[in-house]
């Protein structure tokens, strides 16, 4: 069971990890959000099951104060992630401040964390979809760095797709595994103490191997 402090600031009720469904995309750079959710589910002994209504794999637990906490991996494919998130918002009557979206970021060095209360999509198609469906960009997000590929402008689009849909090299994999553990710590701290206090502690932190 996940514990929260009732006296703490508002904390997330829906944790969303972004990625693409299917074995083809398993453990690719773009699926780091899925991996964090899977790790949290394992740590908290939560079984994730597919639900067609919500277009995703999800599971839930209760905090010590009795509040529902949901883990979600949309199965809509990345570009339509907002459909799944909006279905949860409408069904559970959530507020934007009650969601924490976890996803990859090419603009951060591999293994670095960045936690924010709001912000633009920054070119991330999954976040573009969520912002569009919720009608706001004012919701918390946790980004994990996957680094950017070096390429010419002429080849940029093709290279970016190849990069984010590719798997990590063995040395990168060690860093990412450590980053997932660090992300778990950041999420758990956010649930106990709130997003803002977690930001001061975890922003800029890089996984150590």
From TrEMBL:
Keywords: Cytoplasm, Hydrolase, RNA-binding, tRNA-binding
Residues that hold tRNA according to the record: 25, 77, 79, 125
Enzyme superclass (EC): hydrolase
Catalytic activity, reaction form: an N-acyl-L-alpha-aminoacyl-tRNA + H2O = an N-acyl-L-amino acid + a tRNA + H(+)
Major location category of this protein: cytoplasm
Enzyme Commission numbers on file: 3.1.1.29
Organism superkingdom: Bacteria
GO cellular component: cytoplasm
Active site (catalytic residues): 30 (proton acceptor)
Residues with site note (Discriminates between blocked and unblocked aminoacyl-tRNA): 20
CDD domains cross-referenced by the UniProt entry: PTH
GO MF annotation terms: peptidyl-tRNA hydrolase activity; tRNA binding
Entry function: Hydrolyzes ribosome-free peptidyl-tRNAs (with 1 or more amino acids incorporated), which drop off the ribosome during protein synthesis, or as a result of ribosome stalling. Catalyzes the release of premature peptidyl moieties from peptidyl-tRNA molecules trapped in stalled 50S ribosomal subunits, and thus maintains levels of free tRNAs and 50S ribosomes.
Assembly and oligomerization: Monomer.
Family membership: Belongs to the PTH family.
Annotated protein name in UniProt: Peptidyl-tRNA hydrolase
Organism name: Adonisia turfae CCMR0082
Gene field: pth
């Amino acid at each position: 069971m996940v514990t929260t402090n009732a006296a703490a600031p508002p904390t997330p009720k829906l944790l969303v990890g972004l990625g693409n469904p299917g074995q083809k995309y398993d453990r690719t750079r773009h699926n780091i959000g899925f991996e964090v959710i899977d790790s949290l589910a394992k740590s908290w002994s939560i079984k994730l099951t597919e639900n067609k209504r919500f277009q995703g794999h999800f599971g839930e637990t209760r905090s010590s104060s009795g509040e529902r906490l949901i883990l979600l991996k949309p199965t809509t494919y990345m570009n339509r992630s907002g459909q799944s998130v909006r279905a949860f918002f409408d069904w559970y009557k959530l507020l934007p401040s009650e969601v924490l979206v976890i996803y990859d970021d090419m603009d951060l060095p591999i293994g670095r964390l960045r936690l924010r209360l709001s912000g633009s999509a920054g070119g991330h198609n999954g976040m573009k979809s969520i912002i569009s469906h919720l009608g706001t960009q004012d919701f918390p997000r946790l980004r994990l760095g996957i680094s950017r590929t070096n390429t010419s402008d002429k080849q940029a689009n093709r290279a970016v797709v190849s990069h984010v849909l590719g798997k990590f090299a063995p040395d990168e994999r060690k860093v990412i595994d450590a980053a997932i553990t660090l992300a778990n710590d950041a999420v758990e701290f956010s649930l106990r103490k709130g997003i803002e206090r977690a930001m001061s502690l975890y922003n800029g932190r890089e996984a150590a191997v």
